[in-house]
């Protein structure tokens, strides 16, 4: 069976899980405690990060960018990148926006500082970073709301990896009850739409020892 | 004419310049002072970052990841991503390694802290970050040296975007005289090979007001 090495609170792993599920590619999840730096895992990915996808033929693909591009080339029936060059450029621009800008300005400041830093023995949470994370969420929700009001899906006419990248970050934050859903109605409506897709079911079933999600996390009519 | 909005000390812009030149796609460079946040530029890329490529038909592509993938799809004659799925996964893994891991651990600590932060009025250089940048350069040069000794080019048999991503970061650091080339002979030999390619000429002619490169910067027999 195809294996995805992951961590449940990694938005990059969640993006890959959503892409695999939307493309109906079966896979088995395996939690990798990357901080243990297992030799066998470092042989698959010297960077020591998740996600890493290992195909049944043994091909290992490391890095969420490489995995998502690979999936679209290897399993092109359901494309998540759009058809025209312009559509594909827009999907990738937004994937990069969410994975770098949103990731650095919001997700890292909240998830890393609030929920991972201390349990991993890497120091106390930085209050200023946490406040910045909450402050940054507001303009980012406005961007998502603006895109969702301008277009059927975030990157255009079709559901794409841009939606999954955004939803991966938001679902990670939502699991930790870090999203104020009253900030933007259009963003909330878009998230409700994507959360209802069958591809999302796996994420909504996640339960992490020591950190329970709020009751609305798996509620499709939140 | 096709326009690339760039900054000369951005490794992400340099990667795109190398890809364009290697694929023999003519373009005009235009410096974008991103900190001025020009409305016309923000309309091209709301993230406000370079590089942004604007094609003659008006199509604007923002983000170095989106641009490089676009170039390979729009101008496939000279591919920089390899042929097989495995080759392409390896190229992308390494592009991500250099653009994120090397970028965060080395380039940002040195170029940003030493040469950009103060001139842009964003505070004094952080000595600890600079020391970390120099310390991190050593293992990264060993990785490059190891790859260069194991394979004809960093990602495999063919020159690829992985070589250009690595060379983009190193050439930025080298312009600022931040590379100790005695650290690894194999890495130095590989850099000498890629630096000699015609695609590199534009980078070697860069001259930035107020920051002169060391004499070996443009020397092909350094």
From TrEMBL, chains A, B:
Report the protein name in the record. Answer: Glutathione S-transferase family protein
Q: How does it assemble?
A: Homodimer.
Q: Where is the GST N-terminal domain?
A: 1-79
Per the UniProt record, the lineage of the source organism begins with:
Bacteria, Pseudomonadati, Pseudomonadota, Alphaproteobacteria, Acetobacterales
Tell me which SUPFAM superfamilies the record gives: GST C-terminal domain-like, Thioredoxin-like
InterPro entries on file: Glutathione-S-Trfase_C-like, Glutathione-S-Trfase_C_sf, Glutathione_S-Trfase, Glutathione_S-Trfase_N, Thioredoxin-like_sf
Annotated ranges, domain GST C-terminal: 84-217
């Amino acid at each position: 069976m195809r294996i995805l090495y992951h961590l449940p609170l990694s938005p990059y792993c969640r993006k890959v899980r959503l892409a695999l599920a939307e493309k109906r590619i079966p896979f088995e999840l395996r939690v990798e405690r990357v901080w243990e730096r297992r030799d066998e895992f470092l042989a698959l990915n010297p960077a020591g990060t998740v996600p890493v996808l290992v195909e049944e033929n043994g091909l290992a693909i490391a890095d969420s960018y490489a995995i998502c591009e690979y999936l679209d080339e290897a399993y092109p029936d359901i494309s998540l990148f759009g058809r025209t060059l312009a559509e594909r450029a827009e999907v990738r621009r937004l994937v990069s926006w969410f994975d770098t800008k949103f990731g650095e300005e919001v997700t890292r400041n909240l998830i890393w500082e609030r929920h991972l830093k201390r349990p991993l023995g890497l120091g106390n949470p930085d209050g200023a970073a946490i406040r910045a994370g909450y402050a940054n969420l507001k303009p980012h929700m406005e961007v998502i709301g603006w895109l969702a009001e301008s277009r059927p899906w975030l990157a255009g006419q079709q559901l794409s990896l841009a939606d999954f990248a955004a939803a991966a970050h938001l679902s990670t934050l939502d699991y930790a009850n870090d999203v104020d859903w009253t900030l933007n109605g259009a963003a909330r409506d878009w998230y409700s739409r994507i959360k209802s897709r069958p591809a999302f079911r796996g994420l909504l079933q996640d339960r992490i020892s020591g950190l329970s999600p709020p009751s609305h996390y798996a509620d499709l009519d939140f």
